[in-house]
Amino acid sequence: MVAGLRARWFQRRAREQCRSVPDKCRVYVIGDIHGCAELLSRILNFITADLKDRPIEEPWVVLLGDYVDRGLGSRVVLDILTTAPLPARCIPLRGNHEQMLLDFLVEPHRGIDWIRNGGLETLHSYGIDVRPLHSWGGYAEIAAALRARLPPLHLGFLERTMPRCEIGDYFFCHAGVRPGVPLKEQSDVDLLWIRDPFLSAKCDFGKMIVHGHTPVDQPSVLHNRINIDTGAYISGKLTCLILEDSRTTFVSTNSSRRDAWP
């Protein structure tokens, strides 16, 4: 185990439906990063070491979105994801915060919602002077500055993010799905933004939904969904879910809080 990380193994109850990924496949799923570059580096280092210790034919890294905002290192996070060698083939999903940033570049007048939800920290990470912002404007000027400062690699990465992916019996998205709607018909808006009625749903969605978006103290495992957003920018805990065969493992960066793991 890499220093600074803790692991927990989840044992499925016999009455629960067994979910699995394909043979010779291992999936590392990383929760909401929110500008926590150092925590991301620790998780990626763990994955690199784990693959060296336990090689497998088909390793994947699935990122659940929200790479930017709230934390102070959004630019560094995107540098890591676009220029550093990653330990396995990566599937970057889109979070609502990436969507807000992209919307701001196209329609600056919508920027107030993004700025109030962590966009200010992202602007600071790109060295943008935010003094032109005020209650009645300044968004067009700031959007132009961000377009000028945003490296093409970063913008390309953000634009290529996807709303969903499926591997084996698992369906991955940022926020969740709308109950009663087939997975193939889910809207991008719900996949990026939904909370209830998804969080309170008791139904089987056809596949196990793996998501973030709604912070929890520790990974939440229910019969129909797994939430791995452990509020990294507040808690210091960035969580990685490891799926192999029908086994489920959680690895988390350590937290100074006493309730990091029971």
Automatic annotation (TrEMBL):
PROSITE patterns: SER_THR_PHOSPHATASE (PS00125). InterPro entries: Ap4A_hydrolase, Calcineurin-like_PHP, Metallo-depent_PP-like, Ser/Thr-sp_prot-phosphatase. Residues 93-98 form the Serine/threonine specific protein phosphatases domain. GO terms for cellular component: cytoplasm. It comes from Methylobacterium durans. This is Serine/threonine protein phosphatase. Gene3D superfamilies: 3.60.21.10. CDD domains: MPP_PPP_family. GO terms for molecular function: bis(5'-nucleosyl)-tetraphosphatase (symmetrical) activity; phosphatase activity. Coiled coil: none annotated. GO terms for biological process: RNA decapping. It holds the Pfam family Metallophos.
